[in-house]
Amino acid sequence: MSGVDESAEPTRTPSVPDTATLDRMVDAEAADPEAELAKTEYSTDLGVAMAEDAKRVARGELSGDDYWEKYDRAAEAEFGDDYRETPNPAIDGDGQTVSRETAEGLGCAVGSMDSVAASVESEDGPDGDEKWGMVIDLQKCVGCDSCTVACKAENRTPPGVSYNVVMEEEHGEFPNVTRTNVPRPCMQCENPPCVQVCPVSATYKMDNGVVNVDYDRCIGCRYCMIACPYGARYFDFGENYDDEVTGSGEVTSPEYGVDRGPREGGESPVGNVRKCSMCMHRLNRGEEPACVETCVGDARNAGDLNDPDSDVSEMADSTRSFQLKESEGTDPNVYYLK
Fold it and tell me: Between the CA atoms of 190, 221, 284 and 313, what dihedral angle is there, to the nearest 10 degrees?
């Protein structure tokens, strides 16, 4: 006798539904555009229109030049000097949103974001040729939320701000039920609508693939929040966990390697939109993002997508690999394995 109980139930592996189901899960997490913008002092109608057209730019249905020629006067009227005095749209590098000729004809300044990008790069970090990406194996994710907790602890995010959420959904009927766990950080898109829509160039894409937010530029209009197809952006209302942890607002956040001191009303990042930056401060130290380091199921992997021999590059090129909401044209640097 083999000693094997052939009547026993076979071992079940996590179920990964089709991409349409996963994309629907993402949509369910997104904020309602009109409800979100109603909380701001800025035009809801303008924000919704700019966000929808920013997504069209990502999909290749509208050019960056046509986009800003369409919204230049409205943005200047709505945002005044905040729009006029900032280098928007960014025209430098491969990630340019408009041509220099078009930018020079707009009501905003023409300038480079290089100085801002340089301020969050470390001389002691990697050699500068990387394109950071992440691969998440959905067969390995057990839905423990350790990535969510690690991210909040690392980045000191306040109530209502969570860069890493794990979407969960059950499928089937008892007793044949499976659960899908889908971690969702910022996708660090190659064609990010959030960069396109920002009227003050507070959001910008770095050469290393990471999309960052300059808190000193951000005016909190939240147009980027509704332009993001993944619902991966949050507004900082200035709340703290003081009831749970005494003095929580006094702990300095390490984001972007900038020491901003204790959280205070009217001081960045309070009043700004915030998002996952793949723990840039850790990457610059040669460390993994906190969510990757903490993942108990080894489901998350981060590394250089430009290195064909790196683990993340090989996994991203595998037949199991896919991106969320591929039809949006955003080309995320976060991949999933089914």
Answer: -20
Pairing assessment for the beta strands 132-137 and 334-337 based on DSSP bridges: parallel
DSSP state at residue 87: B
C-alpha span between 207 and 211 (Å, rounded): 9
Q: What does pLDDT average to in each consecutive run of 10 residues of the chain (338 residues)?
A: 47 68 90 94 98 96 94 97 83 66 87 60 64 96 95 94 92 83 96 94 90 93 97 95 85 84 88 95 93 95 96 96 96 96
Gap between the Cα atoms of 221 and 198, Å rounded: 9
Q: Residues near 94 by Cβ (< 8 Å), separated by ≥ 6?
A: 207
Distance CA 79, CA 70 (A): 15
How many Cα atoms within 13 Å fall on the side-chain side of residue 41? 5
Contact between 37 and 222 under an 8 Å Cβ cutoff? The reply is yes
What SS3 state is found at 327? helix
For residue 5, what is the enclosing H or E element? none
Residues 6+ apart with CB under 8 A from 318: 337
69, amino acid identity:
E
Q: Whole-angstrom Cα distance, residue 338 to residue 336?
A: 6
Instruction: Write down all domains in the chain, each with its CATH number in brackets.
Output: 19-337 (3.30.70.20)
Element at 273 (helix H, strand E) = strand 273-274
Cα 101 to Cα 114: distance, rounded to the nearest angstrom: 19
| Helix or strand holding residue 319 (H, E) | none
Report d(CA 286, CA 29) in Å as an integer.
32
Q: How far is CA 285 from CA 116, 120, 233, in A?
A: 19, 12, 25
Quote the CA–CA distance of 33 and 42 in Å, as a whole number.
13
